[in-house]
Amino acid sequence: MDEKLQVTNALAVALPDLELNEIKEKIERPKDSNNGDYAFPTFFLAKSLHKAPQMIASELIEKIDQTGFDKVMVAGPYINFFLNKANVGAEVLKSILNDPEHYGESDLGHKANITIDYSSPNIAKPMGMGHLRSTMIGEAIARILEKVNYNLIRIDYLGDWGTQFGKMMAAYEMWGNSQEVQDGLKNDPINTLLQLYVRINTEADEHPEYTDAGREWFAKLEHGDKEAWHLWHWFREISLERFQRVYKMLDVKFDSFNGEAFSAQKMEEPIQLLRDKGLLKKSRGAEIVDLDQFNLPPLLIIKSNGTTTYITRDLATALFRKRMYGHAKSLYVVGAEQEVYFKQLRMALKELGFNWWDQIEHISFGLMNLNGKKMSTRKGNVVSLEDVLNDSVDLARKQIAEKNPDLKNADEVAKQVGIGAVIFHDLKNYRQNAVNFKLEDVVKFEGETGPYVQYARARAESILRKGGIRDFSNVDLTQVGDGAWELISFLGQYGEAVKRAALNYDPSVVAKYALELAKKFNQYYAHNRILNDDPQQPARLALTQAVSHVLKSALALLDVKAPDEM
Ligand code: ARG
């Protein structure tokens, strides 16, 4: 239940000329609880009513139905509302316990479709840290949007097309038959392909014919040559298989893996449209779209050698997605370095006259640094994502072994804690901020970490096991006691937090909410004996159960698991 709604409704009856939303917006939360739980200022009515605010307040209070409140009183120009905490609290607990799975849901989306393009790694290369961030941020946003009733279409837009595959094929043709390469392709296919690619690029300086060979292979591929197609398909399969291992560890599932190659087959339409609208200009043998009027660099649509580009494929992709999914929003979770690029994409669609150009949103994010160092694939300091996740699981396993040596499913829990820790660390700050990743800080049971939240919930579950009740339908929930109010009131704010996260595409709101809830529960636990064998014990256990449900729900929105014991 939304406590603010109770205040809004009481005021609405007394102020029939105002819109409900207008009233709701004006309601404040006083800093000092002596001024009530909510306060309604009357200044803004002074002009239209031609009266002093103090006067308005004292007249207004006469018209307010005070049932359900402890107290409603005038304080100068304000009306202060004191909630009946026992009743409000019982309502909050009841709505959580009755339907824990759906608690916090709302209907911002009305089931409208949203496509979300995330992860989107480039094949035949190891997945980079940027792609890991995209995967985690994208998945959390998708889950949050589902909670507010959007229908999500998850798309892994694989980078599986482009001249680099021509080079890779040329390299494979030259060196692929050696025993070393053949073994490598079996054991570590992606890195073996990467090595071939690096080798041909380095040696091409001395052997310009390698570059020509690469170009020929790509041309063959574009023209549907069987052998080229077969090689390309094979590169894609072994890459995807590898990516799937990371997705499985993270519990991420996509609806589509249509990548650049898929869109490469659909490029006539956007090119023709650009031509028809007179937007394509020749420039030094290439064809471009001028975006000067938007203060943006021109778009390179067709290169001087006749091949198309990343953006041409993205234009085709955008047209396809709109037609296929009829989306209300089309999100692209991609690093901040592509900010200008996505502005160009939006403006190009606008220039083409598509009124849905503004449904395209770039959900950008900052870099992830490993122990203070920037990570990049090009410079060779490649960090394997699987290694990062596995190291984190190992560290979690060690800590669990110390804390809880008898834990039965320790291995599974270590995975949930280790991987959850990495995800939580990535999501807890606003996505645009850079993230510094230091394993020892990430997998910690204290501080602002995922394991801290998981541990608070495991503690709640342990109390519940000892308490022995799981069905609270006959418990008088008004009996929790005043000491629980802050915690309960915070439980009541979960739905609002989820909405805020959804509107701003910002998982950190949910992560911060989960941290705060864990902290408040730990404080409550420190000051109140939950298992005290008195008549109020069932109500306190009900509260404990509600906290456990909401912590689990918030973690699930972030794609972090919640073990019952750890
Ligand atoms: N593969 C690209 C990269 O690694 C990201 C693709 C993002 N999605 C898109 N539709 N452009 O940079």
TrEMBL record:
Organism: Limosilactobacillus fastidiosus
Domain DALR anticodon binding: 453-566
Annotated ranges, domain Arginyl tRNA synthetase N-terminal: 1-83
Keyword ATP-binding: yes
Broadest EC class assigned to this enzyme: ligase
Entry keyword Protein biosynthesis: yes
GO terms for biological process, alphabetical: arginyl-tRNA aminoacylation
GO molecular function: arginine-tRNA ligase activity; ATP binding
NCBIfam families reported for this sequence: argS
Reaction(s) this enzyme catalyzes, per UniProt: tRNA(Arg) + L-arginine + ATP = L-arginyl-tRNA(Arg) + AMP + diphosphate
Record's GO cellular component terms: cytoplasm
E.C. numbers: 6.1.1.19
PANTHER family tied to this protein: ARGININE--TRNA LIGASE, CYTOPLASMIC, ARGINYL-TRNA SYNTHETASE
InterPro entries, per the entry: Arg-tRNA-ligase (IPR001278), Arg-tRNA-synth_N (IPR005148), Arg-tRNA-synth_N_sf (IPR036695), ArgRS_core (IPR035684), DALR_anticod-bd (IPR008909), Rossmann-like_a/b/a_fold (IPR014729), tRNAsynth_Ia_anticodon-bd (IPR009080)
Subunit note: Monomer.
Gene from which this protein is expressed: argS
Compartments, record wording: Cytoplasm
Annotated keywords: Aminoacyl-tRNA synthetase, ATP-binding, Cytoplasm, Ligase, Nucleotide-binding, Protein biosynthesis
Motif 'HIGH' region, residue numbers: 121-131
Family according to the record: Belongs to the class-I aminoacyl-tRNA synthetase family.
Name of this protein: Arginine--tRNA ligase
